[in-house]
Amino acid sequence: MNMLLKATKLTVAAALIAGLSTAAMAKERVYKWSLATTWGPTLSPFIDSPKKMAEMVKKMSDGRLIIEVDASNKHKAALGILDMVKGGQYEMGHSASYYWKGKDIDLLPFTTMPFGMTAPEQYAWFYYGGGMELMQKAYAKHKVLSFPGGNTGNQMGGWFRKEIKTLDDLKGLKMRIPGFAGEVMAKLGLTVTNIAPGELYTSLERGTIDALEWVGPGMDIKMGFHKIAPYYYTGWHEPATELQFLVNERAFKKLPADLQEILVTAMKLSSYDMYIQNYDMSAQAWSEIATEYPNIKIKTFPKSIMDAMKKANAELLTEMAQGHPLLKEVLDSQAAYQKKARVWTEMSDYLYLKDNL
Hints:
Layout: H1 2-28, E1 31-37, H2 48-60, E2 65-70, H3 72-75, H4 81-87, E3 92-95, H5 119-128, H6 131-139, E4 144-151, E5 158-160, H7 167-170, E6 174-176, H8 179-187, E7 191-193, H9 200-205, E8 211-212, H10 217-220, E9 231-233, E10 242-248, H11 249-254, H12 257-292, E11 297-299, H13 303-321, H14 325-356
Parallel strand pairs: 1-2, 1-3, 6-7, 6-8, 9-11
Antiparallel strand pairs: 3-10, 4-10, 5-8, 5-9
Helix pairs in contact: 2-12, 5-6, 6-14, 8-13
Keywords: Metal-binding, Signal
Organism: Candidatus Marinarcus aquaticus
Binding site for Na(+): 214
């Protein structure tokens, strides 16, 4: 009996020592990941978001999680981020969900939707209105986790070679405009295409496209679009464009719990930092337009065109949701939250601005 007790004690002690050793080893192990982006190496602030996230993770983990960020010029697949993360070539990615509407329509709404929520409304929906749960549900079939990766706020409606006065002026134009807004414009008679960021200026210069939308003045002016297409229209199609961090689910589960928490926290902080960085860039660029870029003509689409866009948008939403129950669940959730939040947005922001401009 004493021998059995001694053996049991030794076994328990060995197990405890082994457990402590395993925990200690986990604390000492260095995890090296790589992240692929849709963006070129100088495309601020888009490329800054994953870079800042990686820096924060390295510091907060005391060097236990190292993430190397690869811009699109390295991996040569700007619009292939989802497939690369899903397949395990990269543990992480940074892109935008609406680029994959042709691959999986359920992922489309997590970037933005025409006439949808503003950035504060959308962030509230993600973190407190059920949006995060729906996004993980949509990405689960790809074995990928998705997290907000930085917001542009309300984007401009695009650069056009000629002024758009009527619906007839739109018909036949070739335009780069991604996401669901592209479907709306196609319904109004445009030929719509999606082109990687690094090819936009060349496509416009060579006449491959007649118009394009990118982001806003902070990012657009330095791209030089105004040299070819000087008519710059205000937005309707992307009121809160949220980029996405994608994480291979299997790789994430292999991380110790503390590194998982560090990664999630760094993604959240860097996404908000991109939002305010882009806001500052646009405010600065807008202040310089009148004096430094006098050829740029700021325009708003006429009411007749806006009404046609809203009508086309509503019809297409109804058509698109048919046969896609998860997509309908997401769209219904967004619409309900927008209806609730918009009352406060009007009271807190719109009426304040209306009375003080």
